[in-house]
Amino acid sequence: MRTSWLVARMLATIVGLLPAAAPHAAVAAAPPDRYVVVHAGILLAVPGRPPEREMSIIVRNDRILSVDKGYTDAAVLQTSAGAMVEVIDLRNRFVLPGLMDAHVHLAMEPSFGRHRTERGDRNPSTGAERAVNAMIYARRSLAAGFTTLRDLGSDDSSVFAVRNAIRQGRMIGPRILVAGSALAVTGGHGDTLPLDATGDPQARLRDGTCDGPYECREAVRFQYKLGADVIKFTSTGGFSSNTALEPEFFPDEVEAIVATAHLLGLKAAAHAYSALAIRQAVHAGVDSIEHGFLVDDEGLAMMKKAGTYLVPTLSASYPPPIFKVPNPESVRIRNEHKAFERAYAAGVKIAFGTDAGTFAHGDNAKEFGLMVRFGMSPMDALRSATVATADLFGIAGEVGTLEPGKLADLIAVAGNPLDDVGTLLDVDFVMKSGRIAKRDGRMVEPFSYPPPSATF
Q1: Cα–Cα distance for residue pair 306/309, rounded to 1 Å
Q2: What is the pTM of this model?
Q3: Do 365 and 384 touch, CB atoms closer than 8 A?
Q4: Whether residue 422 sits in one domain with residue 363
Q5: Over the stretch 385-432, which tens digit does the pLDDT of each residue have?
Q6: 151 and 282: one domain?
Q7: Nearest CA among 179, 146, 149 for reference residue 269
Protein backbone atom coordinates (compact mmCIF):
# COMPACT_ATOMS: atom_id res chain seq x y z
CA MET A 1 0.00 0.00 0.00
CA ARG A 2 2.83 2.39 0.95
CA THR A 3 4.58 1.74 -2.41
CA SER A 4 1.41 2.43 -4.39
CA TRP A 5 0.90 5.68 -2.50
CA LEU A 6 4.47 6.84 -3.29
CA VAL A 7 4.08 6.00 -6.97
CA ALA A 8 0.85 7.95 -7.13
CA ARG A 9 2.42 10.99 -5.45
CA MET A 10 5.39 10.92 -7.86
CA LEU A 11 3.11 10.75 -10.90
CA ALA A 12 1.03 13.64 -9.59
CA THR A 13 4.15 15.73 -9.05
CA ILE A 14 5.42 15.02 -12.61
CA VAL A 15 2.05 15.83 -14.13
CA GLY A 16 1.93 19.06 -12.16
CA LEU A 17 5.21 20.16 -13.69
CA LEU A 18 3.91 19.72 -17.25
CA PRO A 19 2.30 22.71 -19.02
CA ALA A 20 -1.45 22.66 -19.00
CA ALA A 21 -3.00 21.55 -22.27
CA ALA A 22 -5.11 24.07 -24.11
CA PRO A 23 -8.83 23.27 -24.04
CA HIS A 24 -8.77 22.96 -27.82
CA ALA A 25 -5.56 22.38 -29.75
CA ALA A 26 -4.81 25.24 -32.12
CA VAL A 27 -5.37 24.35 -35.77
CA ALA A 28 -3.39 26.22 -38.42
CA ALA A 29 -5.77 28.33 -40.44
CA ALA A 30 -5.93 27.53 -44.14
CA PRO A 31 -4.51 30.33 -46.28
CA PRO A 32 -7.13 32.47 -48.02
CA ASP A 33 -8.04 31.62 -51.58
CA ARG A 34 -6.24 33.57 -54.28
CA TYR A 35 -8.22 34.68 -57.31
CA VAL A 36 -6.65 36.13 -60.44
CA VAL A 37 -8.74 37.63 -63.23
CA VAL A 38 -6.79 37.75 -66.49
CA HIS A 39 -8.21 40.04 -69.19
CA ALA A 40 -6.90 38.77 -72.53
CA GLY A 41 -7.11 40.85 -75.71
CA ILE A 42 -6.73 37.70 -77.83
CA LEU A 43 -6.94 34.26 -76.26
CA LEU A 44 -5.80 31.01 -77.85
CA ALA A 45 -7.27 28.74 -75.17
CA VAL A 46 -6.93 25.51 -77.18
CA PRO A 47 -4.23 25.50 -79.86
CA GLY A 48 -5.78 23.99 -82.95
CA ARG A 49 -9.00 25.98 -82.51
CA PRO A 50 -9.47 29.62 -83.54
CA PRO A 51 -8.47 32.28 -81.00
CA GLU A 52 -11.11 34.57 -79.44
CA ARG A 53 -11.04 38.28 -78.63
CA GLU A 54 -11.81 40.04 -75.35
CA MET A 55 -11.82 37.08 -72.99
CA SER A 56 -11.34 36.59 -69.26
CA ILE A 57 -9.63 33.71 -67.48
CA ILE A 58 -10.63 33.28 -63.85
CA VAL A 59 -8.00 31.50 -61.76
CA ARG A 60 -8.59 30.21 -58.25
CA ASN A 61 -5.36 29.26 -56.48
CA ASP A 62 -3.54 27.03 -58.97
CA ARG A 63 -6.38 26.12 -61.35
CA ILE A 64 -8.61 27.72 -63.95
CA LEU A 65 -12.11 28.29 -62.59
CA SER A 66 -13.67 29.56 -65.82
CA VAL A 67 -12.97 31.09 -69.21
CA ASP A 68 -15.52 33.78 -70.02
CA LYS A 69 -16.39 36.07 -72.90
CA GLY A 70 -15.81 39.75 -72.23
CA TYR A 71 -13.80 41.38 -69.48
CA THR A 72 -15.15 40.09 -66.19
CA ASP A 73 -15.51 42.64 -63.41
CA ALA A 74 -13.68 41.29 -60.36
CA ALA A 75 -16.30 42.90 -58.11
CA VAL A 76 -18.95 40.43 -59.29
CA LEU A 77 -16.90 37.33 -58.48
CA GLN A 78 -18.36 35.10 -55.80
CA THR A 79 -15.30 34.45 -53.69
CA SER A 80 -14.73 32.81 -50.33
CA ALA A 81 -14.39 34.92 -47.19
CA GLY A 82 -11.05 36.70 -46.95
CA ALA A 83 -10.07 35.82 -50.51
CA MET A 84 -7.44 37.87 -52.31
CA VAL A 85 -8.36 39.05 -55.81
CA GLU A 86 -6.01 40.45 -58.44
CA VAL A 87 -6.77 41.66 -61.96
CA ILE A 88 -4.12 41.27 -64.67
CA ASP A 89 -4.62 43.56 -67.66
CA LEU A 90 -3.45 41.76 -70.81
CA ARG A 91 -6.00 43.42 -73.10
CA ASN A 92 -3.20 44.43 -75.48
CA ARG A 93 -1.60 40.97 -75.44
CA PHE A 94 -2.02 37.58 -77.11
CA VAL A 95 -2.52 34.97 -74.36
CA LEU A 96 -1.92 31.24 -74.82
CA PRO A 97 -1.09 28.15 -72.76
CA GLY A 98 2.38 27.79 -71.25
CA LEU A 99 4.83 26.22 -73.69
CA MET A 100 6.50 22.82 -73.25
CA ASP A 101 9.84 21.48 -74.45
CA ALA A 102 10.10 17.69 -74.70
CA HIS A 103 13.89 17.52 -74.96
CA VAL A 104 16.27 19.57 -72.81
CA HIS A 105 19.42 19.00 -70.76
CA LEU A 106 19.24 21.37 -67.80
CA ALA A 107 22.48 20.34 -66.11
CA MET A 108 24.83 21.84 -68.68
CA GLU A 109 25.26 24.56 -71.26
CA PRO A 110 26.40 23.84 -73.80
CA SER A 111 25.87 20.15 -73.15
CA PHE A 112 28.78 18.32 -74.70
CA GLY A 113 27.10 15.05 -73.89
CA ARG A 114 28.16 12.56 -71.24
CA HIS A 115 31.61 12.16 -72.72
CA ARG A 116 33.72 9.09 -73.12
CA THR A 117 36.32 10.13 -70.61
CA GLU A 118 38.93 7.62 -71.75
CA ARG A 119 39.37 9.70 -74.91
CA GLY A 120 40.50 12.72 -72.93
CA ASP A 121 37.26 14.71 -73.01
CA ARG A 122 36.75 16.94 -70.01
CA ASN A 123 34.55 15.48 -67.29
CA PRO A 124 31.14 17.04 -66.77
CA SER A 125 30.85 19.23 -63.71
CA THR A 126 30.06 17.74 -60.31
CA GLY A 127 26.53 16.85 -59.25
CA ALA A 128 26.36 19.93 -57.04
CA GLU A 129 27.44 22.20 -59.89
CA ARG A 130 24.92 20.55 -62.21
CA ALA A 131 22.14 21.20 -59.69
CA VAL A 132 23.01 24.89 -59.58
CA ASN A 133 23.12 24.95 -63.38
CA ALA A 134 19.76 23.23 -63.60
CA MET A 135 18.20 25.72 -61.20
CA ILE A 136 19.46 28.68 -63.24
CA TYR A 137 18.59 27.18 -66.62
CA ALA A 138 15.14 26.09 -65.45
CA ARG A 139 14.40 29.67 -64.41
CA ARG A 140 15.72 30.97 -67.72
CA SER A 141 13.44 28.56 -69.56
CA LEU A 142 10.47 29.68 -67.48
CA ALA A 143 11.25 33.30 -68.33
CA ALA A 144 11.07 32.28 -72.01
CA GLY A 145 7.53 30.99 -71.50
CA PHE A 146 8.26 27.29 -71.04
CA THR A 147 6.24 26.13 -68.06
CA THR A 148 6.95 22.41 -68.57
CA LEU A 149 10.23 20.75 -69.54
CA ARG A 150 11.31 17.15 -70.08
CA ASP A 151 14.95 16.66 -69.13
CA LEU A 152 16.31 13.74 -71.15
CA GLY A 153 19.68 13.02 -69.65
CA SER A 154 21.63 14.35 -66.69
CA ASP A 155 22.74 12.20 -63.75
CA ASP A 156 21.36 10.46 -60.67
CA SER A 157 20.80 13.55 -58.53
CA SER A 158 21.08 17.10 -59.89
CA VAL A 159 17.91 17.65 -61.91
CA PHE A 160 15.94 15.46 -59.51
CA ALA A 161 16.83 17.92 -56.75
CA VAL A 162 15.65 20.93 -58.75
CA ARG A 163 12.46 19.18 -59.84
CA ASN A 164 11.67 18.31 -56.23
CA ALA A 165 12.30 21.86 -54.98
CA ILE A 166 9.86 23.19 -57.58
CA ARG A 167 7.25 20.53 -56.82
CA GLN A 168 7.46 21.31 -53.10
CA GLY A 169 6.89 25.01 -53.77
CA ARG A 170 10.30 26.05 -52.50
CA MET A 171 11.01 27.90 -55.75
CA ILE A 172 8.99 29.02 -58.76
CA GLY A 173 10.17 27.11 -61.78
CA PRO A 174 8.87 25.09 -64.70
CA ARG A 175 7.33 21.68 -64.20
CA ILE A 176 10.14 19.20 -64.91
CA LEU A 177 9.88 15.58 -66.00
CA VAL A 178 13.22 13.92 -65.29
CA ALA A 179 14.89 10.97 -67.00
CA GLY A 180 18.00 10.91 -64.84
CA SER A 181 20.90 9.18 -66.59
CA ALA A 182 20.21 8.20 -70.18
CA LEU A 183 20.70 4.48 -70.73
CA ALA A 184 23.62 3.59 -73.01
CA VAL A 185 25.67 0.55 -73.97
CA THR A 186 29.27 0.18 -72.88
CA GLY A 187 31.36 2.43 -75.11
CA GLY A 188 28.29 3.96 -76.71
CA HIS A 189 26.76 7.41 -76.92
CA GLY A 190 26.13 8.34 -73.29
CA ASP A 191 28.65 6.05 -71.60
CA THR A 192 30.82 8.36 -69.48
CA LEU A 193 32.41 5.76 -67.22
CA PRO A 194 36.20 5.80 -66.95
CA LEU A 195 37.82 2.50 -67.89
CA ASP A 196 38.54 1.51 -64.29
CA ALA A 197 34.83 1.81 -63.41
CA THR A 198 33.43 -0.07 -66.40
CA GLY A 199 33.02 -3.27 -64.38
CA ASP A 200 31.64 -1.61 -61.24
CA PRO A 201 27.93 -2.57 -60.99
CA GLN A 202 26.99 0.46 -58.85
CA ALA A 203 28.84 2.87 -61.11
CA ARG A 204 27.09 1.35 -64.13
CA LEU A 205 23.69 1.82 -62.54
CA ARG A 206 24.36 5.45 -61.67
CA ASP A 207 25.67 6.13 -65.17
CA GLY A 208 22.87 4.24 -66.90
CA THR A 209 25.29 1.95 -68.73
CA CYS A 210 23.85 -1.47 -69.54
CA ASP A 211 24.52 -4.46 -71.81
CA GLY A 212 22.06 -7.27 -72.41
CA PRO A 213 18.34 -7.34 -71.62
CA TYR A 214 18.74 -8.29 -67.95
CA GLU A 215 21.13 -5.48 -67.12
CA CYS A 216 18.99 -3.07 -69.13
CA ARG A 217 15.93 -4.02 -67.10
CA GLU A 218 17.91 -3.39 -63.93
CA ALA A 219 19.03 0.01 -65.24
CA VAL A 220 15.42 1.04 -65.89
CA ARG A 221 14.36 -0.09 -62.43
CA PHE A 222 17.21 1.86 -60.85
CA GLN A 223 16.13 5.09 -62.57
CA TYR A 224 12.57 4.36 -61.45
CA LYS A 225 13.79 3.94 -57.86
CA LEU A 226 15.54 7.31 -58.10
CA GLY A 227 12.20 8.85 -59.06
CA ALA A 228 12.50 9.14 -62.84
CA ASP A 229 9.41 10.38 -64.72
CA VAL A 230 10.56 9.01 -68.09
CA ILE A 231 13.23 6.63 -69.41
CA LYS A 232 15.63 7.81 -72.10
CA PHE A 233 17.97 5.48 -73.98
CA THR A 234 20.51 6.17 -76.72
CA SER A 235 19.50 3.66 -79.35
CA THR A 236 22.19 4.92 -81.76
CA GLY A 237 25.42 6.84 -81.62
CA GLY A 238 25.42 10.60 -81.78
CA PHE A 239 27.24 13.65 -83.08
CA SER A 240 28.54 15.00 -79.78
CA SER A 241 30.23 11.72 -78.78
CA ASN A 242 31.57 11.00 -82.28
CA THR A 243 30.03 7.52 -82.12
CA ALA A 244 28.41 7.62 -85.57
CA LEU A 245 24.66 7.27 -86.06
CA GLU A 246 24.11 3.53 -86.32
CA PRO A 247 22.35 1.19 -83.84
CA GLU A 248 24.11 0.45 -80.55
CA PHE A 249 21.46 -1.60 -78.71
CA PHE A 250 20.31 -5.03 -79.88
CA PRO A 251 16.54 -5.45 -80.42
CA ASP A 252 16.16 -7.59 -77.27
CA GLU A 253 17.81 -4.82 -75.22
CA VAL A 254 15.49 -2.19 -76.70
CA GLU A 255 12.47 -4.37 -75.98
CA ALA A 256 13.65 -4.93 -72.40
CA ILE A 257 14.03 -1.19 -71.79
CA VAL A 258 10.68 -0.20 -73.25
CA ALA A 259 8.73 -3.08 -71.70
CA THR A 260 10.22 -2.45 -68.25
CA ALA A 261 9.51 1.28 -68.46
CA HIS A 262 5.89 0.61 -69.44
CA LEU A 263 5.53 -2.01 -66.70
CA LEU A 264 6.51 0.69 -64.22
CA GLY A 265 4.13 3.24 -65.74
CA LEU A 266 6.84 5.33 -67.42
CA LYS A 267 7.13 6.57 -71.00
CA ALA A 268 10.24 5.65 -72.99
CA ALA A 269 12.13 8.00 -75.32
CA ALA A 270 14.69 6.79 -77.85
CA HIS A 271 17.59 8.91 -79.09
CA ALA A 272 17.71 7.45 -82.60
CA TYR A 273 19.12 8.51 -85.95
CA SER A 274 19.43 5.29 -87.98
CA ALA A 275 16.36 4.10 -89.90
CA LEU A 276 16.88 0.56 -88.57
CA ALA A 277 17.13 1.72 -84.96
CA ILE A 278 13.97 3.80 -85.35
CA ARG A 279 12.04 0.81 -86.69
CA GLN A 280 13.32 -1.39 -83.87
CA ALA A 281 12.32 1.16 -81.23
CA VAL A 282 8.85 1.68 -82.71
CA HIS A 283 8.35 -2.08 -82.96
CA ALA A 284 9.22 -2.31 -79.25
CA GLY A 285 6.52 0.27 -78.45
CA VAL A 286 8.66 3.32 -77.70
CA ASP A 287 6.67 6.49 -77.02
CA SER A 288 8.89 8.99 -78.82
CA ILE A 289 11.76 9.11 -81.28
CA GLU A 290 14.21 11.90 -80.51
CA HIS A 291 15.97 13.50 -83.54
CA GLY A 292 15.09 10.76 -86.07
CA PHE A 293 17.07 12.33 -88.92
CA LEU A 294 17.50 9.16 -90.99
CA VAL A 295 13.98 7.76 -90.67
CA ASP A 296 12.78 5.96 -93.79
CA ASP A 297 9.26 5.73 -95.22
CA GLU A 298 8.66 2.37 -93.53
CA GLY A 299 9.62 3.89 -90.20
CA LEU A 300 7.27 6.82 -90.72
CA ALA A 301 4.41 4.47 -91.57
CA MET A 302 5.14 2.45 -88.43
CA MET A 303 5.25 5.61 -86.30
CA LYS A 304 1.94 6.87 -87.65
CA LYS A 305 0.22 3.53 -87.10
CA ALA A 306 1.60 3.16 -83.56
CA GLY A 307 1.02 6.80 -82.60
CA THR A 308 4.72 7.27 -81.87
CA TYR A 309 5.81 10.87 -81.51
CA LEU A 310 8.72 12.47 -83.34
CA VAL A 311 10.62 15.06 -81.31
CA PRO A 312 12.61 16.73 -84.11
CA THR A 313 15.12 18.94 -82.18
CA LEU A 314 15.80 21.09 -85.24
CA SER A 315 17.47 23.75 -83.10
CA ALA A 316 20.28 21.42 -82.08
CA SER A 317 21.19 20.60 -85.64
CA TYR A 318 20.43 23.67 -87.69
CA PRO A 319 22.63 25.42 -86.89
CA PRO A 320 24.21 23.70 -83.87
CA PRO A 321 26.40 25.92 -81.68
CA ILE A 322 27.79 22.79 -80.00
CA PHE A 323 29.79 22.04 -83.15
CA LYS A 324 32.41 24.69 -83.68
CA VAL A 325 32.54 24.38 -87.46
CA PRO A 326 30.70 26.42 -90.12
CA ASN A 327 28.85 23.56 -91.86
CA PRO A 328 28.67 20.53 -89.60
CA GLU A 329 27.58 17.11 -90.79
CA SER A 330 24.31 17.38 -88.88
CA VAL A 331 23.14 20.23 -91.13
CA ARG A 332 23.93 18.28 -94.29
CA ILE A 333 22.14 15.17 -93.03
CA ARG A 334 19.11 17.14 -91.85
CA ASN A 335 18.73 18.99 -95.12
CA GLU A 336 19.33 15.89 -97.23
CA HIS A 337 16.84 13.59 -95.51
CA LYS A 338 14.21 16.17 -94.42
CA ALA A 339 12.82 13.87 -91.72
CA PHE A 340 10.78 16.62 -90.12
CA GLU A 341 9.10 17.67 -93.36
CA ARG A 342 8.37 14.07 -94.36
CA ALA A 343 6.98 13.19 -90.93
CA TYR A 344 4.71 16.23 -90.93
CA ALA A 345 3.44 15.43 -94.44
CA ALA A 346 2.84 11.79 -93.44
CA GLY A 347 0.72 12.77 -90.44
CA VAL A 348 3.14 11.51 -87.79
CA LYS A 349 2.57 13.04 -84.36
CA ILE A 350 5.13 15.76 -83.66
CA ALA A 351 5.99 17.10 -80.21
CA PHE A 352 8.04 20.26 -79.74
CA GLY A 353 11.57 19.56 -78.54
CA THR A 354 14.81 21.46 -78.93
CA ASP A 355 17.77 19.70 -77.25
CA ALA A 356 18.42 22.91 -75.30
CA GLY A 357 21.74 22.50 -73.57
CA THR A 358 23.47 22.03 -76.90
CA PHE A 359 22.65 25.73 -77.21
CA ALA A 360 21.66 28.37 -74.66
CA HIS A 361 18.70 27.59 -72.42
CA GLY A 362 16.04 30.24 -72.86
CA ASP A 363 16.44 30.29 -76.65
CA ASN A 364 14.07 27.33 -76.99
CA ALA A 365 11.49 29.32 -78.95
CA LYS A 366 13.79 29.55 -81.97
CA GLU A 367 12.54 26.03 -82.77
CA PHE A 368 9.19 27.56 -83.80
CA GLY A 369 10.90 29.57 -86.53
CA LEU A 370 12.61 26.47 -87.90
CA MET A 371 9.43 24.41 -87.82
CA VAL A 372 7.53 27.06 -89.77
CA ARG A 373 10.48 27.58 -92.12
CA PHE A 374 10.41 23.87 -92.97
CA GLY A 375 6.69 23.82 -93.73
CA MET A 376 4.67 23.53 -90.51
CA SER A 377 1.81 25.97 -90.00
CA PRO A 378 2.19 28.37 -87.03
CA MET A 379 -0.93 26.88 -85.42
CA ASP A 380 0.43 23.34 -85.69
CA ALA A 381 3.77 24.51 -84.30
CA LEU A 382 1.97 26.01 -81.28
CA ARG A 383 -0.09 22.87 -80.89
CA SER A 384 3.10 20.77 -80.91
CA ALA A 385 4.38 22.73 -77.89
CA THR A 386 1.13 22.55 -75.91
CA VAL A 387 -1.55 19.98 -76.75
CA ALA A 388 0.83 17.44 -78.32
CA THR A 389 3.54 17.66 -75.68
CA ALA A 390 0.98 17.35 -72.90
CA ASP A 391 -0.31 14.19 -74.57
CA LEU A 392 3.19 12.76 -74.98
CA PHE A 393 3.99 13.50 -71.33
CA GLY A 394 0.76 11.87 -70.16
CA ILE A 395 -0.47 15.05 -68.43
CA ALA A 396 -3.08 16.29 -70.92
CA GLY A 397 -5.71 16.28 -68.19
CA GLU A 398 -3.72 18.90 -66.29
CA VAL A 399 -2.05 21.21 -68.80
CA GLY A 400 -1.73 22.02 -72.51
CA THR A 401 -4.91 24.07 -72.88
CA LEU A 402 -6.61 26.87 -70.94
CA GLU A 403 -9.83 25.20 -69.84
CA PRO A 404 -11.74 25.03 -66.54
CA GLY A 405 -10.24 22.57 -64.09
CA LYS A 406 -6.75 22.62 -65.57
CA LEU A 407 -3.66 24.09 -63.97
CA ALA A 408 -3.26 27.78 -64.76
CA ASP A 409 -0.16 27.77 -66.96
CA LEU A 410 -0.35 30.71 -69.37
CA ILE A 411 1.87 33.22 -71.12
CA ALA A 412 1.40 36.45 -73.06
CA VAL A 413 3.19 38.12 -75.96
CA ALA A 414 2.80 41.50 -77.64
CA GLY A 415 2.28 40.22 -81.20
CA ASN A 416 0.23 37.48 -82.81
CA PRO A 417 2.30 34.27 -83.11
CA LEU A 418 -0.16 32.92 -85.66
CA ASP A 419 1.04 35.68 -87.96
CA ASP A 420 4.67 35.67 -86.81
CA VAL A 421 6.01 32.91 -84.55
CA GLY A 422 8.99 35.17 -83.91
CA THR A 423 6.88 37.00 -81.32
CA LEU A 424 7.36 33.97 -79.06
CA LEU A 425 11.01 34.97 -78.66
CA ASP A 426 9.85 37.78 -76.37
CA VAL A 427 7.43 36.57 -73.69
CA ASP A 428 6.63 39.28 -71.15
CA PHE A 429 4.09 37.54 -68.89
CA VAL A 430 4.27 34.03 -67.43
CA MET A 431 1.95 32.30 -64.98
CA LYS A 432 2.79 28.80 -63.72
CA SER A 433 0.14 26.90 -61.72
CA GLY A 434 -1.61 30.15 -60.85
CA ARG A 435 1.52 31.90 -59.59
CA ILE A 436 2.85 34.87 -61.53
CA ALA A 437 6.45 34.18 -62.49
CA LYS A 438 7.03 37.06 -64.91
CA ARG A 439 5.26 40.38 -65.18
CA ASP A 440 5.97 43.28 -67.54
CA GLY A 441 9.03 41.46 -68.79
CA ARG A 442 10.60 40.96 -65.36
CA MET A 443 10.90 37.74 -63.39
CA VAL A 444 9.68 37.62 -59.79
CA GLU A 445 11.59 36.33 -56.78
CA PRO A 446 12.30 32.62 -57.36
CA PHE A 447 12.36 31.42 -53.77
CA SER A 448 9.99 31.37 -50.82
CA TYR A 449 11.47 31.81 -47.37
CA PRO A 450 9.58 30.07 -44.55
CA PRO A 451 9.66 31.68 -41.11
CA PRO A 452 12.47 30.53 -38.77
CA SER A 453 10.05 28.41 -36.73
CA ALA A 454 9.31 26.34 -39.83
CA THR A 455 12.95 25.58 -40.59
CA PHE A 456 14.99 22.77 -39.16
Answers
A1: 9
A2: 0.89
A3: no
A4: no
A5: 999 999 999 999 999 999 999 999 999 999 999 999 999 999 999 999
A6: yes
A7: 179
